[in-house]
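Take a look at this chain, tokens included, and explain the fold to me:
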Amino acid sequence: MKSKTTQSTSFVAMPKRKRSDGIVLLVCCSALFMTTLDGTVLNVALPVLQRNLGASSADLQWTIAGFALFRACGIFLCGALADRFGRKRLFCIGLIAFTLASLACGVAPNLGSLIGFRCVQGFGSAILTPSSLAIITSTFTDQKRRAWAIGMWNVAAGVSTTAGPVIGGLLVQFFGWRSVFIINLPIGIAALFGTKILTESKAVIPRKFDVGGQLSIGIGLVTLTYALITAPSKGWTSPLILLLLVLSLFSWGGFLFVQKSSDHPLIGMQYLKRPALAGGALLAILAFTVLSGFQFLNTLYLQEVRNFSPLITGLISLPLAAAVVVFAPIAGRMTGRRGPRGSAVLAACFLTAGMVLLTLFATRTVSLVALIFGYLVLGVGFGLINTPITTAAISSMPRERAGVAGAVSTTGRQIGANLGVALIGSIAFSVGGTFRAPKRSGFGKAQAADFVHGLRYGYGVAAILAGIGIAVALWAFRNWQAHIDEERAIETDAPTVI
């Protein structure tokens, strides 16, 4: 049956065989797993990497934050490109770019080139993430099946995010730190072959690019990241840091102005005013600030303070990943049946409780049983959080803008991932002191004591941010049924041809 196109049609996709839906989901989830894993798998390799390349604490932050920064800056642009030129096409380009950048990271001769290739990796991930979510959205059109598919997509994201330390520990222990990048090659190649099953979809009426909005996001994120990472060494009140923070604030204000005044905004104020979209994005920022800040500091704590090997460090983190695996599908079912509010509020409560426990447990001698219990509580929170924030973004925008909707959700995550390393890490280093790589494994007594002191401050700030997330979740999804009724009315007035 041939697809038809009319003037009122806002979205076109080629006919899809239902039997292939599972394969489409597998290909998209595999690519997402690879790119999201790379955002966290390097954490456990940081102590080894810093000894091999002589990195400072700020260098370590840039190695992780550079990836998240370019991913966050590029996702909106790439989501719009996917809607304009085709989701499958952008998906394939992203796969090739990310896989080649992974190879370059694996053979990087020095720290500067590694950070540069990490930034390229981040942009490749920015291409892949919104296009994969848009492909899933266009494939699964039924409300409940779409919620289930998004849940599985989020399982891939959640498992790869939290399993990064485990996988990284195994790779670093037996194959060295370069292997955390080389492992992407077979996954990327296999996913590229799998794209043959995908069908192309895009918006029929191309949207103009919001250059002002894109520049505002880029300037705001770059200046904020540089200010936060540099602040511990230059001082939080230095003229340069204050200037960068003010510039970042004005950039974000400029973004809101552009969205209000532009004829072709990146998102549009009519969508940003919706509590489900704005609140869901804010919740994503808060949750992933907590996660990335915790993972960055926890790796240094376990290896440099407690003197655990990379493998043991990864295994200790396994309960957190296991909790995500168990509770991510539960979050999908809860969201599909009752909406995102219950899952989101419960997730924020567990995140807060987990960070409070880990703040109390942040000592040089706390038992592993106590630490693992804290990881479990934190893992439950992360298992429950992904599906509601993704569903909020997808359900808050028209289906022909699925690429941009996916970009909203993912950009919130990446801004959080960037802030976690830059903000939480810098708070810990400001209190506990910055450092260069120790020549031997592990900190000395004095340095370990200072680091733990800073760690408690960093974890404490993360706990506060998670607590704010409870209020955000209660506010953002308070009228979810009315929101769904409005979405269905819009879809009825503007039918889709597939």
Remarks:
- The longest helix spans residues 143-175.
- The radius of gyration is 22 Å.
- Residues 24 and 198 are 6 Å apart (CA to CA).
- The chain is about 80% helix and 0% strand.
